[in-house]
Amino acid sequence: MPRTPLISITSTSFRPTTSSPLSASIFFPDTTFALHPAQKWSILGSSKSTLLSILCGSHIAIPPTGRRYPGLRGTIQLVSFGTGSASTGMLAGANRGETYLSARYEARREEFDVSLREWLGGSIAGKNPFDEGGEVKGEEALGERKKKVEDVARDLMLREFLDQSVMTLSNGQSRRARIAQALLKRPEVLAVDEPFSMAPRGWVMGLDPPSHNLLSELLSRLPHAPQPTQVLLGLRPQDPVPAWSTHITYISNDRILAQGQKEFVIPTLRQSGKAILHEGDAQKPAPTLLDKVWSISAHQAFTSQKPTPSPSKSTSRPILVQMSNIQITYPPRPPLLQNFSWTIRAGERWGPLWSQRIGEDHIDIPPNLRSPANLRPTNNTLWPPNPPSRARQTGKVHSFFPKAYTLRRTALFLRAVVGKRDLIVLDEAFSGMDSVVRDRCLQALADGFDRTRQALVAVGHVGEEVPEVDMWVKLPEGGSDSCAVFGDA
């Protein structure tokens, strides 16, 4: 006898919750979907985030009885890391407010900063333990709440960071912290949208391969006793379907094209021309630079703590940047870099790789400034002394627009390269871009790069989003005892 589904949608259409819902257009018409216990769904496609919000109870169901939760005894929690998610910047409440991600390196630890333990403790489902009576009972309840925080931190490998300011957590640690926060609310269903990409304040940053694998492994452990939690994943096209996922839904244009058990849906989609990646594929994509770098051990390449210099194609080219045994520290935190030496010469193209960000180029561009006309210089740090002619500038810009007209990443990329600076630094510049736009940007970068005087430094976490480089440097995790590793691409 089949078990009662936790979520059941039968022949139901939906309208957005707006000021005039009756006049709003219908999406996901005549949709049918069911989530049964022990199923782990991966939802792919352009409207995956919308379907996840529908499953979590958002939007207006037509008819109202078409969406039911017959077997649900607990709650549903949605954690979104995707573009357009409600969470912006760092973890909400990190310093009694919001800020942008790179501020964790710039800001000093202030008295109003919140530790991870405090931040998670405020997320536990239930009342304040002192609301219900005497001091002894309150102290016992506090001890129980502390144990819940420590248990979920252990499950998500966060215990060593509990007394650390949430402002200083890395991308992967912050992501696990948000999932821990959701789990402390004791959901029966956990929906995680784009767990392997993050989009604070309009930009998207992917995880490096080790962090990706760790997060996938941690999610695979759910559900677990004594309070089982079902998992729904919203995945990007470049994200492989986890090996532990049991079912797949594929969406296009607000319609479910295929759904069911993974072993049946993936072959069907591939036969129809859909490129579906799977962690267990025998035929894997060609290894990228990142695959090579993350598989290499420290003793197989040069390190910044040895006298051997970083690799260079030509020592006769002009030096543009030179660092010698530098240390970067924001007290009282551990050093981000120490004993680090690096020389960048004209003509070199470098790929720095790190599990944390090292730049702050992804500023939030207001909607009224996202146009070709507003790629003009605002100060000398962003533009050369002799900017290109307006005709050449406008011609290059309009070759990308209007298709990518509102893409703030495209605007930032063009702003960085159109001026022909001696040094171009691209920090996750192509992450989250439409693949067609990204490939055009990569081609423009290759065609316009002047190897006689320019140098390129490109930071990336996804192989397809790293431009062609000659050399790479793998930077250590902040506070670790490891050192930087250099190598040839």
From TrEMBL:
UniProt GO molecular function: ATP binding; ATP hydrolysis activity
Among InterPro entries, the record links this protein to:
ABC_transporter-like_ATP-bd (IPR003439), Molybdenum_import_ModC (IPR050334), P-loop_NTPase (IPR027417)
* Protein origin, superkingdom: Eukaryota
Instruction: Cite the ABC transporter domain residue spans from the record.
Output: 26-278
A GO cellular component entry from the record: mitochondrion
Extract the SUPFAM superfamilies matched here.
P-loop containing nucleoside triphosphate hydrolases
Where are the annotated segments for Disordered?
365-394
Low complexity bias locations: 374-383
Q: What is this protein called?
A: ABC transporter domain-containing protein
User: Per the UniProt entry, what species is this protein from, by scientific name?
Assistant: Tuber magnatum
